[in-house]
Specification:
This protein has helices at about 10-20, 40-50, 65-80, 125-140, 155-165, 170-175, and strands at about 25-30, 30-35, 85-90, 95-100, 110-115, 145-150, 165-170, 180-185. It is of the alpha+beta class and about 190 residues long. It has one domain (about 30-185): Gcn5-related N-acetyltransferase (GNAT) (Aminopeptidase, 3-Layer(aba) Sandwich). The strands form two sheets. It has a five-stranded antiparallel sheet, with helices on both faces. The chain has a three-stranded antiparallel sheet with strand order 6-8-7.
């Protein structure tokens, strides 16, 4: 895919992009780096948004829909002070997926979300990234709670939310029919 919007900027525009990206939090864990999203990460995002688990996140999405979603999630940093991180392998730098402290149009409150490439699933990466992002939300941003909106058919994400110590919130679920809402609080951490 050779879309003009996916062409990396050069010159002063690239320098400006780098300055902005440098202001976003970078979190390192034992195996991962949570870093600012880059244009090159869109390919991984599009794979997730059009892949086998895409139905759990409003997909499958076309390339344009995935681009708009990627941009919207990334813009959270500028508009709300939290947003999308790229989850990268700490040693190789390879993009493994994404974790977000975000707020989409239909969300009732801030969400902890996690999206991984198929080859990164089943290795504890989502848990490691989600714990790091959640700790940032509580300890740095001062949030008292965050939720994970999970499709009822997404048993893997539900199991992960449970492992993270989150519990279903029936009051919050009443506002978003057809969605399970898992509430994370600072006092409950694995």
């Amino acid at each position: 895919m050779n879309r003009p919007c996916l062409t990396a900027p050069t010159g002063a525009t690239a320098a400006q992009r780098d300055r902005i990206a440098a202001t976003l939090p970078r979190i390192e864990t034992a195996r991962l780096v949570l870093r600012a999203p880059e244009l090159a990460d869109y390919a991984a995002y599009a794979r997730i948004a059009s892949g086998p688990d895409a139905a759990f996140i409003g997909g499958p999405m076309s390339a344009e829909e995935a681009w708009l979603d990627f941009c919207q999630m990334s813009a959270g940093w500028l508009l709300r002070g939290s947003g999308l991180w790229t989850v990268a392998d700490r040693e190789s730098g390879a993009t493994l997926g994404f974790v977000t402290l975000g707020m989409e149009w239909e969300d009732e409150e801030p969400e902890l979300g996690f999206l991984l490439l198929p080859e990164a699933q089943g290795r504890g990466i989502a848990a490691e990234a989600a714990m790091a992002a959640r700790t940032y939300a509580f300890d740095t941003l001062g949030w008292s709670t965050v939720v994970s909106y999970i499709d009822p058919g997404n048993t893997r994400s539900a199991a992960l939310a449970n492992r993270l110590g989150a519990r279903r919130d029936p009051v919050a679920e009443a506002a978003v029919p057809g969605t399970h809402v898992y509430r994370h609080v600072p006092e409950v951490r694995p």
